Amino acid sequence: MKLRVQYTAQLRAVVGRAEEVVELSEGGNLAELLNLLADSHSTARPHLVTEVGQVRPSLLIVVNDSAVSAREAAKTVLYSDDIVTLLPPIAGG
User: Fold this and answer.
1) Which secondary-structure segment (H or E) carries 21?
2) CATH for 2-87?
3) Which residues make Cβ contacts (< 8 Å) with residue 50, sequence separation at least 6?
4) How many other CB atoms are there within 10 angstroms of residue 51's CB atom?
5) H-helix or E-strand containing 7?
6) What dihedral angle (degrees, nearest 10) is formed by the CA atoms of 48, 6, 3, 27?
7) Mind spelling out the 3-state secondary structure of 27-82?
8) pLDDT tens-digit profile of 9-66?
């Protein structure tokens, strides 16, 4: 199935694009998608997943119009044409 992934803030700079279409196996979940993205974009890995492949707790994730926590990522099944927006934490002031 095809999903649209949108990158914001420093993730956009690290990945080098604002969005992309990603192919994920039918029935795949959000955690699988983030690990796939981490494998595809090695420079973005530290922003997406921990050293052991768990979704980074500080990453803000929106699937379509609903926020999803890192804890819920493995239980969040994705569907064709879903839009996943990734928002890394913003620091500074």
Assistant:
1) strand 19-23
2) 3.10.20.30
3) 56
4) 7
5) strand 2-7
6) 30
7) CCEHHHHHHHHHHHCHHHHHHHECCCCCECCCCEEEECCEEECHHHHHHCECCCCC
8) 999 999 999 999 999 999 999 999 999 999 999 999 999 999 999 999 999 999 999 9
